[in-house]
Design brief:
With 62 residues, the chain is an all-alpha fold. Helices cover 76% and strands 0% of the residues. It has one domain (2-61). It has helices at 2-22, 25-28, 40-61.
Length: 62
């Protein structure tokens, strides 16, 4: 279970780093931080990872 939590936290930090990198020049050109509709997948992955972390924490409390 610890390994799952470590993987989830690592994925979350990698995703947030990717989002911050994506906000450089393209955002200044009016492209938006999501880069059109293709960036929606990053948001979906973020929601899934956060949901998995919350589920794992709730399972440990039982």
């Amino acid at each position: 279970m610890k390994a799952f939590t470590i993987v989830a936290v690592g994925s979350l930090s990698a995703l947030s780093a990717g989002v911050s990198i994506a906000q450089d020049g393209h955002m200044m050109d009016g492209g938006g931080w999501m880069g059109g509709y293709g960036g929606v997948w990053g948001l979906i992955v973020l929601v899934v990872i956060v949901g998995l972390v919350v589920w794992a924490v709730l399972q440990r409390r039982k």
